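Design job #97: recover the sequence.
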């Protein structure tokens, strides 16, 4: 418990930035018009691809006994893949709306 409190006190500015980024991200996404959701989904897919590559690189450089780094890297890879697949599914569904029906 003391280590957690020490970590929080040493990284207080970073925690503030993270909380502020979360609030700004929620407000930005909430106020995006529906017309822009498909282009934003393409951008999110690109960012998730970068997250996946970065997580794989971190996992490759991590010590095999560092279970925290390996676990967080695995979670990042799984969540990034879910986001990419979901983004492609949403984009494909949106594009299906513009095709002519037989």
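Job complete. Output follows.
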């Amino acid at each position: 418990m003391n280590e957690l409190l020490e970590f929080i006190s040493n990284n207080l500015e970073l925690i503030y930035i993270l909380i502020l980024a979360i609030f700004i991200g929620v407000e930005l996404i909430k106020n995006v018009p529906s017309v822009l959701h498909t282009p934003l989904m393409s951008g999110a897919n690109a960012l998730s691809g970068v997250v996946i590559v970065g997580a794989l690189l971190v996992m490759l450089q991590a010590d095999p006994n560092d279970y925290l780094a390996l676990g967080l890297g695995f979670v990042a890879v799984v969540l990034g893949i879910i986001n990419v697949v979901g983004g492609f599914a949403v984009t494909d569904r949106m594009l299906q709306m513009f095709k002519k029906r037989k």
